[in-house]
Amino acid sequence: MAIPQASMGPSSLGQSGPGSMAPWCSVSSGPTRYVLGMQELFRGHSKTREFPAHSAKVHSVAWSCDGRRLASGSFDKTASVFLLEKDRLVKENNYRGHGDSVDQLCWHPSNPDLFVTASGDKTIRIWDVRTTKCIATVNTKGENINICWSPDGQTIAVGNKDDVVTFIDAKTHRSKAEEQFKFEVNEISWNNDNNMFFLTNGNGCINILSYPELKPVQSINAHPSNCICIKFDPMGKYFATGSADALVSLWDVDELVCVRCFSRLDWPVRTLSFSHDGKMLASASEDHFIDIAEVETGDKLWEVQCESPTFTVAWHPKRPLLAFACDDKDGKYDSSREAGTVKLFGLPNDS
Fold first, then answer.
1. Cα torsion 313, 62, 215, 258: sign
2. Whole-model pTM?
3. Which end of the chain is more exposed for a tag (fewer CB within 10 A), N or C?
4. Can you list the domains of the chain with their CATH numbers?
């Protein structure tokens, strides 16, 4: 099926129309009051603490909608859930059952007790923190690497290594639809309005489908190389994509134009997260820092130092706390640092 191609994104300065750089893109004159205020806050809250979570590297972290819990998924085939208590994470439970690595997980958008995990064992599992049990195991056709829950809570989409995306009814746990794509599917996401479905792909494109019809709406040439991750801001104004070209591009949801780029990272952008107010964007890669930018200007607000590549970042849904996980070294390389920790930045320096 032919998909209308839009003009290039960050690479085509000066053009206008869907999928192009907006003409009002400009360099800001100096730090905004928001940036100065947040920098002041982080000067007193720049502490990062590590919390043991798994026996192998952590691939994914995510907060429940109420911010009370953080879940992590790991190469050790388990998920862990922590309770956030003041300035620390307290491990509540470890969730076993998958037969292979847990590559991605996400929470129900409005029920803080349910989360879902995607695994290479060709299943997804829905878990309930109240009973600490798996309430559903759904068999899928391939090794699952991407998962997201629709904003209305009714559907779970899961993508596998064969570029098949399956849409699963969150109540009946049955497959509602399945799409095989002819390109490498990376991250997947609904828009906040639940009426469009976005995929980032290996050709640097963002593919947009109508939902629930799953008919192609547009294909945006967003980056010259592999488009890896995508996130929507909680306010519904923007979405951001991260690419193998080390750029993060910010897009206007309604106009589908690229508003600005963030270019402080040197390595492929693996993971993104917007803060709860939509004003900060964290992005991370194999660089040994996480970039925190002000969304409206692209200005650097802060950087969080880390000793190894970062796999996953997630802002807390109510507070300026950033959870993340890195490629921790196993004991045989460096016995002082454990594999499988979850990290929390934004804690008071005196905590």
1. negative
2. 0.90
3. N
4. 33-347 (2.130.10.10)
